[in-house]
Request: fold
Amino acid sequence: MDILVTVKEVAEVADDFEIAGTAIDEAYLEYDLNEWDDYAVEEAVQLQEAGIADEVVTATIGPERADETIRMALAKGADRAVRVWDDALAEQDLIDVETKAEIFAAVAEEFEPDLILTGVQAGDDSLGATGVALARQLDYQWAAVVNNLSLEGEDGTARVHRELEGGVEEVTDVEMPAVFTIQTGINEPRYASLRGIRQAQSKEIDPRSLADLGLDAEAAESELQVAEMYEPEAEGEAEFIEGDPDEQAGELAGVLQDSGVVGE
Amino acid sequence: MSDVLAIAEHRRGELRDVSFELITAGAAVAEAAGGELHVAIIGGDVEGFAEDLNREGVDVVHAAANGEEFNHDVYVQTVEALVDEVGPEYLLLPNSVNGLDYAPALAIDRNMPLVTDVVELEVDGEDLVAMREMYGSKVETAIEVAEGPYAITIRSAEWPPAEGMGDAEVRAFDFETDEDAIGTTVTGFEEAAGGDVDISEADFLVSVGRGIGEEDNLELIEALAEATGATISASRPIVDNGWLAKNRQVGQSGKTVTPDVYLAVGISGAVQHVAGMKGADTIIAINTDPNAPIFDIADYGIIGDLFEVVPELTEQLS
Reply:
C-alpha cells in the first residue's frame, strides 16, 4: 500500500505584527510545517514501520522556500516529495479549495496511492476543506477529523474514529481507497533524528509546474480574493492586575477569596 | 431571485444549536438578496425537527427522511437534489465536524466557490463578501467570493439562534438515496475516556494550556489546585500531548464548562477553546502575550509569567 501525505508550509505570526495591504508584513512571519500535517506524516510513517504501508510520498503546494519544511517531513521518514509551484499560483493571494484539490489529485493520479492523509486544516488560512475536496476530485472515499485509524478492518475497509464536538467520537467504517483528514492528538509526532536529517538530504524533492501535471494556468485562478485584512477589535473589558508577580498574586488571591471559591 | 438554502444539523436525536444560527444568518442573507429562505433537515425525526425549525424568517422547510444519523454520502446526494429543487444562490452549511465532512464534496461536484468558517456575511444582491479569521484569530479578512451560487459554512455561535414561531410551509422532500454510492457506515458513538472526573460540575477550574511548556511543569498547577481545592482542566494541546486525560479538555471538541471561576493559565484563547468556557461567571487569565484573545473575554487579566505568578499565588493561598 502506498500513501500520499499532503504537507503545507504555514506562516506563523509574531505576537506583535503589522499588516501591509492585504497581508501580514513578511518581517513578522516564520515558516513551519503545519501542525496538523505533522500528525498526518507521523501516522503514515507509523503505518510504514508496521509493515502496512510501502512508499510514503509527500505533496506540497508552495514556493522553493518550502523545501526546508519538506525536508523535515522527509527526515521524519517520508520517502520522497513532490512540490508544486507556478507563477500562476504565486499570483493568488488565497489559493482556493478547488485549485488545491485539482493539483493534489493530479499528483495522486501519477501513482494511485491507496491511502491519502491530510491535516484537518492549515494553521494559516484554516479553510479545513482540502482533504474532502481531494477525495471527491479523485472519486475516493473519505472521513474528516480522524483521531483514530485502523486499516485492519474486514472486507478491506478502514475503521476510523471521527472527533465530533462535545467529547463524542463517531466510529465509522470507510471503503478504500480513501482520504482521511488527521486531527492533532492521534499520535505523538516524532522529532527528526540526526540520522533522519542526514538521510533526508539525499531524498528526492520533485519540483513540478502546473503544466507538468497536465493542468493549465486557469486551474490556479482563485475564487477567493482577500479584499481587506485587519486586526479584530479587542472586545474585552478585562481589569488588568498590575505590579510585581507577588503583588499580582496577592491581588488575584483577593479576587478568588471574594468570589467565594477559596476560603479567606 | 436569489434564494437561500440552509441545511440544519442534528445528532443523536437532537437538533444542534448551529441549525438555529443558520436560520438567523440565512434570513439576513435572504433579505439582503431579495429571496426566500429555505431550510432543510435530512434524516432522523424529520417531522419533529421540521416543526422546530419553523422559526421566524423561514419560508419553506424541506423534510427529507433519508437515514437516521449523519452519513456524508447521504447528505451529499440529498443536498444536491435539494439544490436542484430550490436553485439557491446561497447554500449555507454548518462549519461543524460533520459540515466539513460533506460541504467540500458538494462544492467540488457543483463547482461552487466554497468559503468556510465564516463569521460575518455582507450580501448585496448576488455579490458576496465573507468575513473570516486567519492565523489562529490574529487577523480578520474580508474575502470577495467570485460568482455564485456559493457554498458557505458558518462558524457556530457567531449568529444568535432564531426564535419565534414561523409560518413556513413544511414540505416532505421525497428522494431515494443511491445505496450503491454509499461507502461509509457509522457503527456507533463513543464518549471521551478518562475516569470519573467531571469538569463540567466544578465550581473552580484551574485550566492549563500550551504556555506550561513541559509535562513536568504541571506540578505547579497541581500544587495550586491542591492548595485551593480547584479542579484541573486543560486546553487541547495539553490533552493532545497526553499530559492530561481527554475528559479534562475544555472546548468545542471537549467539554463545555460553566464554573464560578475559570482561571486560564497559559491559554491563548483560540475560538475553539473559548466556545467551551465563555459561560463561566468569572474568567481570569494569566498570559505573557498582551494580545492573547483570552483577554478579550476575561474579567481579570494578568500579563505576566505563569512560572512566577502561579507559585506565588499557591503560597499565598496555602
